[in-house]
Prior knowledge:
5 helices; Maf protein; alpha+beta; single chain
Amino acid sequence: MGTLVKKIIVATGNEGKMKEIRQILGDGSIVFSSLRDENLQDVPIIEDGNTFEENAIIKARKISDITGQMVLADDSGLEVDYLDKAPGIYSARYMGEDTPYSVKNQHIIDLLDGVEDEKRTARFVCAIACAFPDGHTITTRGTIEGRIGYEEKGTNGFGYDPIFYVPEFGCTTSELEPEEKNKISHRGKALAAMYDELLKEKIL
């Protein structure tokens, strides 16, 4: 590991994501700076990709082009098999960006009313892109399989975490302790893979 402190901008204003990224990738050699930290939270970014990877690249590339710095961006979402993998890449915009997740979560629960356990399968998907000032980009992906619960449970997570039940742990991802969640979560897996890629790039 290098001794110089490097800065990586993370193309998000989501403090929940920033906290997870700092927990998983933070080792003292890198300062992770959010869009809000950089006063770039109002930069318009049109996420018109067809995959999580494409949208992550769009976000990372846009901010890297503006700042001339290395930028990480993630695009993640919930795929519910019974709903033809909705909300998918539209997870953040599902029912409107300003709609509280408590409302979104209840809506998904209502859509699955009466659906038995084995048909409530779902997964979280996370794609992470790292855009470099020289124009090249790398991506990684992580997933976690689970089911949609019958009610919101837990206060440790954010977004769809309170309704995402992981059978092997017997609880939702929102009920897991942060360290435990980071080991098994879609973002944790994608970030761990990105860590390995950044080692190869001699960034870490």
